[in-house]
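hey
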């Protein structure tokens, strides 16, 4: 019998697994853009532990193994910024990335009113762009970072909450 993937808040004990997964997950991005010095590949364990205390970090677990992660925070401007969505290569294309995004959007919405969810990805990251489009994100701009890399900025408005029934 197979195990189910469970999404929950990360804790300090997850930091090493998250960092290893992040390193594994961002290698194809580094290769795609010819840049092995990208921040997800150079982040220290200490820096990641700091992020665990400052923002929402969710993990997807298959048994004891962290097979997916995403993080984000709600700013004073009511904009929820989503970062570092990573799914283990063997778990990709099974809907886990979408589940992680939805869970984080829900968690961020519990922090207060959200005007928009925002994230970005590289212009050549076609799988990421397809996932975000399926999840309702729309392109808001392109930022040229270098001759080899542009960031595609995307945004999603929160779903309208159902109106309470009136008596």
């Amino acid at each position: 019998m197979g195990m189910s993937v469970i999404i929950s808040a990360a804790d300090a004990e997850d930091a090493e697994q998250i960092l290893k997964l992040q390193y594994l997950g961002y290698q194809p991005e580094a290769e795609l853009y010819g840049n092995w010095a990208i921040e997800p590949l150079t982040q220290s364990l200490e820096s990641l532990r700091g992020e665990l205390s400052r923002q929402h970090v969710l993990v997807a677990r298959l048994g004891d193994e962290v097979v997916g992660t995403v993080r984000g925070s709600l700013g004073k401007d009511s904009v929820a910024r989503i970062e570092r969505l990573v799914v283990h290569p063997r778990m990709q294309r099974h809907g886990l990335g979408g589940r992680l995004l939805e869970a984080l959007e829900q968690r961020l919405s519990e922090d207060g009113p959200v005007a928009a969810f925002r994230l970005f990805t590289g212009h050549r990251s076609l799988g990421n762009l397809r996932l975000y489009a399926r999840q309702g994100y729309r392109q808001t701009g392109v930022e040229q970072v270098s001759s080899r890399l542009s960031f595609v900025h995307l945004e999603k408005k929160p779903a309208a909450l159902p109106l309470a029934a009136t008596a």
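The mean pLDDT is 91. The radius of gyration is 16 Å.
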